[in-house]
Amino acid sequence: MPKVKVALIGVGNCASAFIQGLQYYGNKENYTGLRNPSLGSLTPSDIEVVAAFDVDNRKVGKDLAKAIFAAPNNAPKVAEVPSTSIIVNKGPLLDGVGKSTKNIVQVSNAPDANVAKILKESGAEIVANLLPSGATEASRWYAEQALAAGCAFVNATPAFIASDAAWAKRFETAGLPLVGDDLVDQVGSTALHKTLLKLLSDSGVKITETYQLDVGGGTESLETLDRTREAKRTIKTQSVASSLPYKAEIVAGSTDYVDFLQNNRDSYFWISGTYFCNAPMRIDLKFSTVDAPNAGSVLFDVVRALKIALNKKLKGAIMPVCAYAFKRSPQMLPLETAEEMFKTFIKENGSA
Ligand SMILES: NC(=O)c1ccc[n+]([C@@H]2O[C@H](COP(=O)([O-])OP(=O)(O)OC[C@H]3O[C@@H](n4cnc5c(N)ncnc54)[C@H](O)[C@@H]3O)[C@@H](O)[C@H]2O)c1
């Protein structure tokens, strides 16, 4: 079985978790912690990173194995990663750094690489966009490079690409698959919030107000606060609202950055409602996770599902993958429906 060849755009915390995960799960049969040990016939050891791009001086020109542990990355180290012989290339900065992270990211003055050419030469077939949220122009620029190099594209960021009909059409015309936007977490606060609300409303509870707010310490939390707080709030709030069959007061989104939390995230849930004879009920909950590893299992699923889509020559926005693995899919579906669609997609297309 040929490898799933992936190029990473942005060697930040998510990329660190992804590469460490490949090492962690690559040489053993213990897949505890993965949602899908195998998809079709693909396991994590079938995934290979073949190229990577960043702008930070401490990452550009370095072996990927070193770059993933360079500051300001603060995802925990869980695996020793031997030299990869993949050297991080310098991509164009565009809007990759916001005003609050400009003192954190040290932009390299190395010349920009020819990204499409490197993608082609590396044999990459899938480009995974892991740029900071807010880097909309840069995300779209890399989507152009993927088109030029004939690669499928994963948009893990909240920039509107897969959910933009014009972009989906461009990938369809090029005969390439596209998925996005804004990756869901493996154990995500949005999914937990939706599940709690559905459970309560299915039981006859009338939810009156609910919020879910996050505090984190990764660079991405700072970016979100600065550049995409409102967009993230809209995406999350709409997603949560879709789990209730009636209107309620809902607020969901990231709220603040606390540097000493490092790559950890605290998610606060508040749910207020009434049940039999207007009796009141309230949930007040805190949920703590580590941010970057929360993207790993879903990214493993997404790149393997895209390989399956490529094998079957599927093109444009691949709805079962978008709905299963992204918060802002071109079509918003209930969690169970999305899960079912994804399973059917793998079953019908996954055999070699
Ligand atoms: N659990 C998760 O971590 C999770 C879940 C869902 C979505 N996401 C999304 O994944 C993305 C990445 O998150 P992260 O925590 O790894 O962010 P990060 O800030 O740690 O990493 C971003 C990387 O991109 C680099 N970069 C900036 N501009 C660039 C450019 N023009 N070209 C190449 N590289 C550039 C930065 O130097 C940095 O290394 C974000 O958009 C985030 O919203 C993450």
Structural write-up:
The protein is of the alpha/beta class and 352 residues long. Helix content is 36%, strand content 21%. The chain contains ten helices and eleven strands. The chain has helices at residues 13-26, 64-67, 115-122, 136-149, 165-174, 189-202, 219-241, 293-311, 319-325, 335-349, and strands at residues 4-9, 47-54, 89-90, 126-129, 152-155, 177-179, 206-216, 249-257, 264-275, 279-290, 316-317. A seven-stranded parallel sheet has the order 3-2-1-4-5-6-11, with helices on both faces. The protein has a four-stranded mixed sheet with strand order 8-7-9-10. Helix 1 (13-26) packs across helix 8 (293-311), helix 3 (115-122) packs across helix 4 (136-149) and helix 9 packs across helix 10. The longest helix is centred in the middle third of the chain and has 23 residues, at 219-241. The chain is globular and about 70 Å long. The model has no long low-confidence stretch (mean pLDDT 95). Nicotinamide-adenine-dinucleotide is lined by residues 9-14, 53-56, 91-94, 96-97, 105, 130-133, 135, 138, 156-158, 182-183, 185, 218-220, 291-292, 294-295.
